[in-house]
Amino acid sequence: TDLARMCSAHATGLTGVASARTVVDRRRALVTITVADETPLADLEDAVRTAVEPNLALLADPIPLVVKVNR
């Protein structure tokens, strides 16, 4: 969907993210990122949340964001 593409695009644009894949259903948006370098995982998860959550908040029925990080 367009929402999944938007989430992936915002996550992929962050420093340290090699790739991002998003699956959106009625309950949540799951963004799975692959780390490109030795960036601390907690910092990357926070950066993805900061980049993606404001866009999810604009939905008529906002859904929670789940971030999964892979090395």
Task: Give a short overview.
Strands 1-2-3 form a 3-stranded mixed sheet. By secondary structure, the chain is of the alpha+beta class.
**Gyration radius, rounded:** 11 Å
Query: What composes the largest sheet?
Result: 3 strands, mixed
Helix content: 25-40%
**Which segments are poorly predicted (pLDDT under 50) over 5 or more consecutive residues?**
none
What is the overall silhouette?
A: elongated
| Strands, count | 3
**Share of β-strand residues:** 25-35%
Measure the end-to-end span: 26 Å
* Structural class determined from secondary elements: alpha+beta
* Strand order of the biggest β-sheet: 1-2-3
- Mean of residue pLDDT values: 94
Count of individual helical segments? 2
Write down the oligomeric state: single chain
The H-and-E topology, N to C, reads as: HEEHE
Sum up the structure in keywords:
single chain; 71 residues; alpha+beta; three-stranded mixed sheet
Structure commentary:
This protein is 38% helix and 30% strand. The chain is α+β, with helices and mostly antiparallel strands. A three-stranded mixed sheet has the order 1-2-3. The termini are far apart. The mean pLDDT is 94.
